[in-house]
Amino acid sequence: MHAPTTIPALAQNAAHRFGDRTALEEDGVRWTFRELAAHALQAGRAFMATGVEPGDCVAVWAPNCREWIVAAIGLQAAGGVLVPLNTRYKATEAGHILRESRARMLCTANGFLGIDYLSMLEGEDLPALERCIVLRGEPKDEESWESFLTRGNEVSDSNALDRIAGLSPDAAADILFTSGTTGRPKGVVTTHAQTIRVFETWSEVVGLRPDDRYLLQSNFFHTMGYKAGWLACLVRGTTMLPQAVFDVHAILDRVASERVTVLIGPP
User: Fold this and answer.
1) 127 contacts 60 by C-beta, under 8 angstroms
2) Which of 199, 231, 175 is nearest to 55 (CA)?
């Protein structure tokens, strides 16, 4: 099997290399690397079925969870470009990024920290946005994640795998927006190959191992939680333990009860 040069190919490669090793544990759910790749491929089929074409932007505005990971890999498998949104953004901040990126779809959550993200956006002018999917929480007029995934049955596994195989290493994988400290946030485009090269090296330097259990409390909308987080786990075969909110007592409890070996954060 060739070394992967795109993120969806990396997920398929991890299934081949690490198979039935534990890829992810969250809220009593346990997935192997093979199962994670299968979930991501189903999501890729669903994004293809709903019209996502290579180069289309899809935004994810949700807390750290397994659905975030699957949605990200899935939209990239369809050739889409991931646009992560900060879960603490207000409507004007999120609206700016959705407009600038011309995101066609938004995957979000209802009720995280008591926030109704979609209601916040009601006054925003978002001409490119065609569809909203609720990853977690109760949808209103939007489609649930479970319902969305069934759309993938319209596209075969072989067609989805062909789409992945046709992805260029130099294609855009994501657009991460700057913090906007001195002006409006600006989108920074990163390619698939660039991302994999950097975080293969990073994960080797920090000594991430296949038998590690990595508590992912850094936000997935940031490079730390996304690329130095779950993506590095795909590179090294490390178990992912998503944590939605930074809470000292909850994290210390998980470190003890779930035998965490890796915890990364600011000093």
Assistant:
1) no
2) 175
Give CA–CA dist 134/152, Å, rounded: 16
Whole-number average pLDDT of the chain: 95
Does residue 112 carry a pLDDT above 80?
yes
What pLDDT, on a 0 to 100 scale, did the predictor assign at position 1? 61
Polymer length in residues for the chain = 267
Q: Which amino acid is at 29?
A: V
Rounded distance between C-alpha atoms, residue 6 and residue 23, angstroms? 19
Work out the angle at residue 132's Cα, subtended by the Cα atoms of residues 130 and 137, and round it to the nearest 5 degrees.
175
Per-residue pLDDT tens digits for 17-50: 999 999 999 999 999 999 999 999 999 999 999 9
Instruction: For residue 70, name the pLDDT band (cuts at 50, 70, 90).
Output: very high
Q: Which residue has the tokens 């990239």?
A: 76
Look at residues 154, 211, 204, 177 and name the one whose alpha carbon lies nearest to residue 86. 177
Residue with tokens 């993200």: 117
pTM of the model as a whole: 0.96
Other Cβ atoms closer than 10 A to 202: 15
- β-strands 187-191, 213-216: how paired? unpaired
Residue pair 142/113 in contact by the 8 Å Cβ criterion: no
